[in-house]
Each structure stands twice: as structure tokens, then as C-alpha cells.
Amino acid sequence: MSRPVRVAILGATGAVGKAMIETLLRRKFPFTTLKLLASARSAGQVVHIQGVPYTVEEATPESFADIDVALFSAGGDISLRFAKEAVARGALVIDNTSAYRMDKSVPLIVPEVNADAFSTHQGIIANPNCSTIQMVVALAPLHRRYHIRRIVVSTYQAASGAGERAIEELRETSRAILDGRAPEPSLLPVAKLKNHYPLGFNVIPQIDVFEENGFTKEEMKMVRETHKILGDESIAVTPTAVRVPVVYGHSEAVYIETELPFVVDDVRTLLRDAKGVTLQDDPTRQEYPQPYFAAGHFDVFVGRIRRDLYAENGLNLWIVSDNILKGAAYNAVQIAELWLRQEGITA
Amino acid sequence: MSRPVRVAILGATGAVGKAMIETLLRRKFPFTTLKLLASARSAGQVVHIQGVPYTVEEATPESFADIDVALFSAGGDISLRFAKEAVARGALVIDNTSAYRMDKSVPLIVPEVNADAFSTHQGIIANPNCSTIQMVVALAPLHRRYHIRRIVVSTYQAASGAGERAIEELRETSRAILDGRAPEPSLLPVAKLKNHYPLGFNVIPQIDVFEENGFTKEEMKMVRETHKILGDESIAVTPTAVRVPVVYGHSEAVYIETELPFVVDDVRTLLRDAKGVTLQDDPTRQEYPQPYFAAGHFDVFVGRIRRDLYAENGLNLWIVSDNILKGAAYNAVQIAELWLRQEGITA
């Protein structure tokens, strides 16, 4: 195709921004222009992409005047400041922050699950929260077939979900503890709050701030976004979101109850055939997903599938995926690929 | 008191054995003799206790001839070999292995929960699995008052639960990954099985071997032992047991449903007043249990208490405790203290 495909990445110097660049390349996304944008603080940095140096520019409304698709991952406040400006200038905004996710006029898309929502966009499409994305990729095929009524999920979330500085803090606190020094956390679990706890050799049952109901904002995202993506607000979701000392890859212990009965082997077949899912489920061979091995891959890995011992139609699963890729950058690029398809552009 | 209190520890050189010695001292357990026993391989090692050198002896049936209370923590096969020999020679055996836990003639005791079962022993008392102990300490008061019908629990278990070599392997694989070297695991998740995975910066959803039903033995212990300790086989327990890169302290995300309605503030009061529980539950002050801070303490820490968003009588909790202390050594010493009380011996 000869038409230009002009892509911008806002937040290009962050963990997700860098993964977006990498993912565009891995997916051979047919961009003709790639504009890297960031705040004034990061402007001027040079990023090398396939040997070509790209200078990161400071984002302004005019930055988007010649852009077709803009991937946003620079924080919710930045999205609120620039998304409508970019849309007004003709760009499609794919926003990785939580700014627009629950906006009724904004589709919230996981391409394997609800790609059909793409056509309803009015310029902005939201990329869901990482822990929600991997859960719905695995559960949507089961929901379609058996109607999920109940989800109880406990997460084991990686440091990278809190950004590059959190990865650094995990490394530093881990090294301190290994060396017998006192760890000195200053960021996790929530930078802007008063108390900081070491993540090295620890687990922290707080991700994001608490809401009035005693659940964290991260946990409530898993409730609300799951409802919106699956288009079903009747599913009872009970989340506990926990940060663990892992660099890349979120894991989730998930218990579900379905309305319709299932045969466990059919569940395995459904998941083996599901788009975006890799089944890793053979206890006799100690085969099950682990974040250390899922890191760097695009798929959602599912294993430990077993019928509940008590509940009729109760099922347990273990779901792992790279939170920076499928949980953020790759899902955003997949949404951009829906745009390519709509425009009739082939890679 | 002038009567002799002769204590033996079998498996004195292991992680739990050492913690047993330490716990006897911290509790000022009034022993007059302390005999340290181990396999032939470890015999001859010298352990210093409050400045006094103790030589570890090789265990034989005759080792127990002059012993009142023997704490066993040297593996299930060793317990099967020596427990009845020790009982025949007049010792009370408190066994930390799984050898006798489900034996109907052996009480399985968590002193805060079912100390009354002590009187039924026939020479052997079993110490439950670590992940079960901390869960029932927190749940028993709620079960008594509100009748728990359903438990869904996901664990975050420390390396020390798999012994001292597992702690070493966690440290080595962590350091390798920090230094950019390939980790070389040879022990976890299950030494005798074929595949070994790094625990450093990873989570492994396998603890112990798999049973036919797809659950691991560790998970099934949480079902069966919970039933036995609470004396109620009707509770539906759904466990997922996961190893995380933590040295000491198991964490558990627990969802329960009760038969009777509750007020959340009453739940907090019940737990605040419960023996062996420390309530750490103030989201506004970011107060919740974490293994890094629970390590070295005897209590079970409970927080993140919140009513479920959907289920009537549904409640969520986060339970953390030192798996080597309350999960093993301290619970065993508490059982020995029940014997002291029966004998009318005061510390």
C-alpha cells in the first residue's frame, strides 16, 4: 500500500512506551512515520530503532496534526490534556491510561474479545488495565459458552506494572536484602502515598489507592472493566490485587462458577483453540504457566485447569501473561491493527 | 517445679528444628534436658544454645527412653520410623510432618482452635501444615460465630517452607538474575521431580506433587486438615497453593461465605480479640500484613478485611504469618505447653 501510516507514541521513554516501539517492529506494523513524544522533561532524548535515531519531541497539541494513530501511555493527566486535541486534528487515539476507560462513549477493547466495539469509536479507544486484559482473554471463550456468573481472582502482579522506577526499586531492595543491608523503598506500593514498603522478598497487598469499600482502585478496575469488555454487568467479580517480587509477568489464581455445566476436557479444547491463548496444562509433566517464562511473549498462558471439589460448575485456572506486552503495549498495537484492517492497509 | 522436663528435637539441624530450639528459649520452656537428634549424616554437629554447646546425636529408638516430649521435624519417613518407638518408651511425640495428620487416632492441633483435642492423644499429636495453621487461626473465630460454608484461598508461600536448601536456591537464583546470569535451579518446586524452575523473580504454582484431581498435595492438605481441625467436613474449600520469592512468611488471599450474616466491624472486633491474631487493618494508613514484617513473630496477622461486593455473607481477608514459627516450630511448642499444663508444670 502506498498510503502513509503516521504513528505517534506519547510517553515513548516509559516502560510501556518503549515496549510499544518494540511491538510495532516485532509485528512489522507498516508505519511510514513514527513520532516519539514525551513531556518536556524527556524531550531531546534519542532512541535508536533498527539503527535509526529518533529524537523524542515534547508533546503539544500540534504534534498530532499529521498523525493517523497515536498511542498514549504517559499517565492519565497527560491523556486528559492531549487526547481530544489529537482527535480534533484527525488522529485515532489508543489510550493506555485509565482516563477514558469507563467513559460510555469510549470503547474498551481487547481484540480477541470485543474487536467489534472498534467501529463505535469517536476518536478515542481505551486499552484496559493489564490484570483485566489477561483475565478476559482466558475467560471470554468460557463466558460465551458456559455463562460465567462468579469470578474470585487473586493476582500476583509484577513490579513493571508500576513503571521503570518500580523495577529499579525491586532490584535495589532485593539486592539490599541479599547483602544484609536494610532496604530503602521510596516508591512502592503507591508513589504519592506516605508509606513505602520493600518489594524485594516481600509481597504487598496494595496496588493503587484504596476506595471507600475497602477494595483498591486496581481491584475495582478488574470488576468494572471486566463488565464493560464482556458486556455483562451481572458477573460477580471478587478481586484481591497483590504486588509480588517479579519483574515482568502478572499471574492470576482464578476461580469461576458458570451457569451451564461443562466438561473439563471441553474447557481445555476451547482454550487451546482460543485466539491469543497458549494452553500450558499438564501436571504430569509439571507444565503450567510461570511469569519468568511468559515474559517477552505476546500470548496469555493458561494452566492448572481443574474442576472445583465442591461447587457444581466450579472451575479453577491459573492465568499468566506479560503485563507490559499483552497487558499494555501489544494490546494497544493490536487495536492499531484493527484500524489498519478498517483502512484496508495490509502489512 | 522440681520435676524434670526432658525434651528431644528430632531433625534439630533443619530450618524448623533450629526454630524449635529458638522458640523453646523465647517461650522460656522449662526443659531440664534438651536432646538434639538427627540422621547419621548430621550427627556430631555442635549447636550452641545460650552459650552451651549441644552435640547433635544420631537418632535411635533408645534415644527416646529418657524423654518426656519429642518434637519431630525430620521428614515423614523418619517420623514413621521413630514415632511409635518413642511412644513405646514413654515420650509424647509432637510430629511436624504429614505422616500422622490424617490418622483418626492422632489429634491434629492448633492450640488457639482445638486445644481440647489434646486429651484424646494416644502418644502422638500432629502439627498441621503451615498454610492450614495460619488460615484456621484467623477463620476459627468466624466459623464459630457465623458458620463458614465456603473458602476460596490463594496462597503466596515462602521458600523456607521447602527447607533451608530452598532458601539458598531462592537467594542463588535471585542473585543470578540480578547479575544477568542464567539461574540454575536444582530443587524447587519439588526436589524429587524432574523439572526445576527458578523461584527468584518468579512464582511457581506447584507446591508438592499433583494428585489425580489436578490439585497438589499441599492444596489437598488445606482441604483435609481444615476439616479435621475445625471438626467440620462440610466446608467447601478451594485452594490454589503458589510459591513466591519470599524467604519467611506465607500470605493468603481468602474469600469466605458464611451461613449467618455478619457486620464487618464485628468481624474486626472478633479478630482483634482472637488469641494468636494481630489485626493490621487500616487502609487509610496503608496498614495490612506483609511477610517481610511478619517474619520472626509468633502471631497470625490479618487485614484487608472487606465485605464482598456481590455475595450475601461474603467476606475477604488477607492472612500472613511466619510459616516456620506459627506454621511449624511455635505451634509445636504451643502443643508442648499444653502438655506442661496437663502435668501441672509452670514455666
UniProtKB/TrEMBL annotation, chains A, B:
<feature type="binding site">
    <location>
        <begin position="160"/>
        <end position="161"/>
    </location>
    <ligand>
        <name>NADP(+)</name>
    </ligand>
</feature>
<dbReference type="GO" id="GO:0071266">
    <property type="term" value="P:'de novo' L-methionine biosynthetic process"/>
</dbReference>
<dbReference type="InterPro" id="IPR036291">
    <property type="entry name" value="NAD(P)-bd_dom_sf"/>
</dbReference>
<comment type="pathway">
    <text>Amino-acid biosynthesis; L-lysine biosynthesis via DAP pathway; (S)-tetrahydrodipicolinate from L-aspartate: step 2/4.</text>
</comment>
<dbReference type="GO" id="GO:0009097">
    <property type="term" value="P:isoleucine biosynthetic process"/>
</dbReference>
<dbReference type="InterPro" id="IPR012280">
    <property type="entry name" value="Semialdhyde_DH_dimer_dom"/>
</dbReference>
<feature type="binding site">
    <location>
        <position position="157"/>
    </location>
    <ligand>
        <name>substrate</name>
    </ligand>
</feature>
<dbReference type="InterPro" id="IPR000534">
    <property type="entry name" value="Semialdehyde_DH_NAD-bd"/>
</dbReference>
<feature type="binding site">
    <location>
        <begin position="41"/>
        <end position="42"/>
    </location>
    <ligand>
        <name>NADP(+)</name>
    </ligand>
</feature>
<dbReference type="GO" id="GO:0004073">
    <property type="term" value="F:aspartate-semialdehyde dehydrogenase activity"/>
</dbReference>
<keyword id="KW-0220">Diaminopimelate biosynthesis</keyword>
<feature type="active site" description="Acyl-thioester intermediate">
    <location>
        <position position="130"/>
    </location>
</feature>
<feature type="binding site">
    <location>
        <begin position="13"/>
        <end position="16"/>
    </location>
    <ligand>
        <name>NADP(+)</name>
    </ligand>
</feature>
<comment type="pathway">
    <text>Amino-acid biosynthesis; L-threonine biosynthesis; L-threonine from L-aspartate: step 2/5.</text>
</comment>
<dbReference type="InterPro" id="IPR005986">
    <property type="entry name" value="Asp_semialdehyde_DH_beta"/>
</dbReference>
<dbReference type="GO" id="GO:0019877">
    <property type="term" value="P:diaminopimelate biosynthetic process"/>
</dbReference>
<feature type="active site" description="Proton acceptor">
    <location>
        <position position="250"/>
    </location>
</feature>
<dbReference type="GO" id="GO:0046983">
    <property type="term" value="F:protein dimerization activity"/>
</dbReference>
<comment type="subunit">
    <text>Homodimer.</text>
</comment>
<comment type="similarity">
    <text>Belongs to the aspartate-semialdehyde dehydrogenase family.</text>
</comment>
<comment type="function">
    <text>Catalyzes the NADPH-dependent formation of L-aspartate-semialdehyde (L-ASA) by the reductive dephosphorylation of L-aspartyl-4-phosphate.</text>
</comment>
<keyword id="KW-0457">Lysine biosynthesis</keyword>
<feature type="binding site">
    <location>
        <position position="323"/>
    </location>
    <ligand>
        <name>NADP(+)</name>
    </ligand>
</feature>
<dbReference type="GO" id="GO:0009089">
    <property type="term" value="P:lysine biosynthetic process via diaminopimelate"/>
</dbReference>
<dbReference type="InterPro" id="IPR012080">
    <property type="entry name" value="Asp_semialdehyde_DH"/>
</dbReference>
<keyword id="KW-0028">Amino-acid biosynthesis</keyword>
<protein>
    <recommendedName>
        <fullName>Aspartate-semialdehyde dehydrogenase</fullName>
        <ecNumber>1.2.1.11</ecNumber>
    </recommendedName>
</protein>
<keyword id="KW-0560">Oxidoreductase</keyword>
<keyword id="KW-0486">Methionine biosynthesis</keyword>
<dbReference type="GO" id="GO:0051287">
    <property type="term" value="F:NAD binding"/>
</dbReference>
<dbReference type="GO" id="GO:0050661">
    <property type="term" value="F:NADP binding"/>
</dbReference>
<feature type="domain" description="Semialdehyde dehydrogenase NAD-binding">
    <location>
        <begin position="6"/>
        <end position="121"/>
    </location>
</feature>
<keyword id="KW-0521">NADP</keyword>
<feature type="binding site">
    <location>
        <position position="101"/>
    </location>
    <ligand>
        <name>phosphate</name>
    </ligand>
</feature>
<dbReference type="Pfam" id="PF02774">
    <property type="entry name" value="Semialdhyde_dhC"/>
</dbReference>
<dbReference type="Pfam" id="PF01118">
    <property type="entry name" value="Semialdhyde_dh"/>
</dbReference>
<keyword id="KW-0791">Threonine biosynthesis</keyword>
<feature type="binding site">
    <location>
        <position position="243"/>
    </location>
    <ligand>
        <name>substrate</name>
    </ligand>
</feature>
<dbReference type="GO" id="GO:0009088">
    <property type="term" value="P:threonine biosynthetic process"/>
</dbReference>
